[in-house]
Protein: UDP-glucose 6-dehydrogenase
Organism: Brachionus plicatilis
Amino acid sequence: MATDTQKEIRPEYLSKPIKNICCIGAGYVGGPTCSIIAYKCPHIQVNVVDLSQERINAWNSPNIPIYEPGLNEIVQKCIGKNLHFTTKVEECIEKADIIFISVNTPTKTYGVGLGRAPDLTYVESAARTISKVAKTSKIIVEKSTVPVKAAESITNMLKSNHQPNVEFQVLSNPEFLAEGTAINDLLKPDRILIGGDNNEKGKWAIGQLSSVYENWVEKSLIITTNTWSSELSKLAANAMLAQRISSVNSISAICEASGADIEHVSRAIGFDTRIGNKFLQASVGFGGSCFQKDINNLIYLCENLNLKEVAEYWHQVLVINDYQKKRFVDKIVKCLFNTLNNKKITLLGFAFKKNTGDTRESAAIQICKYFLDEGALITVLDPKVEYEQMILELSNPQLNLPIEMVKRKVQLCSTDVIEACKGSHALVVCTEWDIFKTYDYKGIYEIMQKPAHIFDGRLILDHEQLISIGFHVEAVGKKLNNQ
Ligand SMILES: NC(=O)C1=CN([C@@H]2O[C@H](COP(=O)(O)OP(=O)(O)OC[C@H]3O[C@@H](n4cnc5c(N)ncnc54)[C@H](O)[C@@H]3O)[C@@H](O)[C@H]2O)C=CC1
Ligand SMILES: O=C(O)[C@H]1O[C@H](OP(=O)(O)OP(=O)(O)OC[C@H]2O[C@@H](n3ccc(=O)[nH]c3=O)[C@H](O)[C@@H]2O)[C@H](O)[C@@H](O)[C@@H]1O
């Protein structure tokens, strides 16, 4: 509800309560975020629109396009009531009081800022469509992760073609959900961040968006700032999270060389309340669609601001991440007698983390690339990744792998553990799926080539038990007592 002060400054043109929200982009952010808004705000009609008919069809089918624990149940409760997925972009924009822009912002693969700057093509196209079709004033919410000052660019794009008497208030409202835990993150966020103009209309718009979240989030957790601080906070949060992983992974290299154990070290330092115990899990390296992209975005910003040392500092987070993957593969090749040629390797997991089918920037992609360069035959076991998606990732031109070779040498088994492990020289854990802990490793050992190796890139298995079965085991960040 708006406060009395907000009522006083409420502009005439926006004097109605929020009844209709449109979200442009039905992806990993737009879909779950709007499902929760619809679930928690039955009085608001929520339309999630996308240009991809295929994606919209999937949202409207029993097989929604995103695997996210708890999401399907919420979608099925609201769909057709106050939650709608449609390609009728223009119609939904026109009806909306608030429009979320949740489109993809990948790293540019061409032109100025190649490999660094975010590609704002989709944001621009969404803004231009809004500007063209909106006949009434709207609050526009930047939900996508964008560079600092993007709200200013969006405001200019919106002005390009707009109808007379139509005004737009642009807010920054970055999303902090993590895949695999999106529903919990959305229902119980650490905070909601809203940035807007520091004037009456800006404050009023912030109040309006805030009133939507207040349906389920405590007011004290809704932080408001100016737009640029909000935009930079999102990049900074992701950079700091990724930096913690690279820090712990760099320490894992010292552990392997020195005999210390990264799990013990992480535990010991995590007890310090100033450090905290989250995000200290050593791994094969972080993946996901955002960490690398957003750090590159930050580096590009620093370079443009002539902050060379700062750019270099953040670049090191990415350098360590690549180093961690290479180090892991080098160890595997060395243990397998310096050649993987025609050897079957079983990858446990291809998704970038557990509880998602998302493979974007997954560490497994680069690991497969190294294996294929070594001539290995790969069988991937992943409960949620689709074959076409995996092949698409491995066909990325940057990997420079001939597609026919990829299709010949890489197989996917969703759940058939025996098929995946039969005749394999090594099991390589790339994703921390819980189900991998439950396998019958005694039985698996019997059907593998000997010596049978396990490389645990996620520290999820019982290494001593595996060694007692007869496996040769290597794990990130520790030296194991193999017999
Ligand atoms: N994936 C994640 O967990 C998180 C992502 N973000 C940010 O949110 C944004 C979206 O990310 P995702 O949802 O993962 O991307 P996504 O690729 O899953 O979804 C984006 C959707 O937007 C649609 N789209 C693009 N241009 C459009 C247009 N003009 N009109 C209608 N639809 C259009 C695409 O077809 C696609 O379905 C990115 O900026 C990302 O950095 C932020 C927090 C978490
Ligand atoms: O902007 C985004 O897209 C999101 O990026 C991350 O979320 P996400 O990438 O979905 O997942 P994370 O849990 O952060 O994991 C990222 C990667 O780091 C790895 N990781 C995570 C934690 C850890 O201790 N060690 C580690 O290797 C994960 O396995 C995964 O590969 C952030 O956690 C979210 O807050 C943010 O909204």
